[in-house]
Write a structure and sequence with these properties.
Helix 1 packs parallel to helix 2, helix 3 packs parallel to helix 4 and helix 6 runs parallel beside helix 8. The chain folds into two domains: about 280 residues, no CATH class; about 100 residues, no CATH class. A hairpin with a 2-residue loop joins strand 15 and strand 16. The strands form four sheets. Strands 14, 15, 16, 17, 18, 19, 20 and 21 form an eight-stranded antiparallel β-sheet that branches. Strands 1-6-2-3-10-11 form a six-stranded mixed β-sheet, with helices on one face. Strands 5-4-23-22-26-13 form a six-stranded mixed β-sheet. The chain is an alpha+beta fold.
């Protein structure tokens, strides 16, 4: 038995709204869920909202976070609360959290991973999008679970304010934390990742970097190289970096080979030392290329990500789709943002529930059996198949 559904409400957050949201999910499922996901705007009243939901769905097996836009079977929305749930007798669920992410993200990842039983075969991860290091968090988790355990999800947003994000587990509201839900049992997961940004120019070697700060490309100050590439648009840095992210060339070995480019979005620039800070790590010694994209290519990439996830299912039928897409894509798509969800519907069928949000960073593996990575400006699709 497998049932999945999503519900959406757009109102002032309160305990009563939470109860109504939870009851609507139970009614749509025709049963109480074994697990729930909540993605919502960063407005006040989140604690009361959660308490109302938990009382209605009768489970503390719930995770989620604040967002830069919510995604459900009803489409794209903002200022809303989206609740998804699964009722199944063939999948077991377990939730866990790690706090103080900003102090030591790799240690937090280890702590989080150790909380899950050995039979866990798939995890969804939601971490603070403003504190900590998502790459280090994944390293810590992979050190415990193994690099082959698929991890999907995203980093929490706060509606583009970049002040504070929230993470949920049960009826608790956290910050500077990572929450995760683990799945085990009789199911298959298929994942797909694509961005729509294309590489330009020749690849350059990262000759000096530390964490997410890039100092030199080919022995030259990174900012100078970026400014030459951008030309007249350089004065709009770092904001223009949304349109021209940097791509890590996969033959550097960072992503396991092939033509895939792991994107990194600019966060800030330092004109004194010529460095650029990105929303993810830039490994020293890696090869990188500048990239660009347009709305049509971005939307086509979303469709391709779904196709890759379908191929990864190995013949099983999809019963639920999770979609985690970057806020930068929403900025570039503008009024066409709703089309991104429509591309998923067209591929998986309108009867399949869709759940997700617009993130400050996306977690997903690039290829079946490969490790999971932190992405920027990328569409990630995870399909549950039975």
């Amino acid at each position: 038995m497998f049932k999945a559904a999503t519900v959406t409400l757009k109102n002032r957050f309160s305990r009563d709204m939470g109860r109504r949201l939870g009851k609507a999910l139970v009614e749509k499922l025709g049963d109480f869920p074994q697990a729930c996901w909540l993605f919502c705007s960063p407005q006040t009243g989140q604690r009361e909202l959660l308490k109302g939901i938990v009382s209605a769905v009768r489970t503390h097996t719930l995770v989620g976070c604040t967002t830069d836009g919510e995604i459900s079977s009803e489409g794209f929305s903002t200022g809303s609360a989206v609740l998804g749930g699964i009722a199944s007798d063939q999948i077991d669920f377990q939730v866990a959290c790690a706090t103080n992410l900003g102090q030591d993200s790799e240690k937090a990842g280890q702590e989080l991973a150790r909380a899950f039983s050995p039979g866990t075969s798939y995890l969804q991860l939601f971490s603070d999008g403003l504190t900590g290091n998502g790459c280090a968090l994944l390293r810590g988790m992979a050190g415990v679970l193994g690099r082959q355990t698929p991890i999907a999800g995203g980093t929490a947003g706060d509606g583009g304010e970049f002040v504070r994000t929230r993470q949920y587990i049960g009826d608790q509201v956290l910050t500077d934390a990572a929450v995760a839900i683990g799945l085990s049992g009789n199911f298959q997961v298929g994942t797909g990742v694509r961005s729509g940004w294309s590489p330009l120019g020749i690849a350059k070697r990262v000759t000096r970097a530390s964490g997410n700060v890039l100092y030199e490309l080919g022995g030259q100050p990174a900012l100078e190289v970026y400014e030459r590439f951008l030309g007249k648009h350089a004065e709009r840095l770092p904001a223009v970096g949304v349109e021209y992210p940097m791509g890590l060339v996969d033959d550097s070995g960072y992503c396991g080979g092939g033509e895939y480019h792991l994107l990194r979005a600019t966060m800030s620039v330092n004109r004194e030392d010529g460095s650029i800070s990105f929303a993810g790590e830039i490994p020293e010694g890696a090869m990188v290329r500048m990239t660009c994209g347009d709305t049509d290519a971005i939307l086509e990439a979303t469709g391709r990500a779904v196709e890759l996830a379908q191929e990864d299912l190995g013949g099983r039928s999809p019963v639920m789709a999770f979609f985690y897409s970057c806020m930068a894509r929403r900025i570039v798509l503008g009024r066409r943002t709703k089309e991104e969800i429509e591309h998923i519907r067209q591929k998986v069928g309108r009867e399949i529930p869709i759940l997700g949000f617009y993130t400050y960073g996306e977690y997903c593996r690039v290829s079946p059996g490969g490790p999971s990575f932190l992405h920027n400006e990328t569409a990630t699709v995870s399909l549950i198949g039975i």
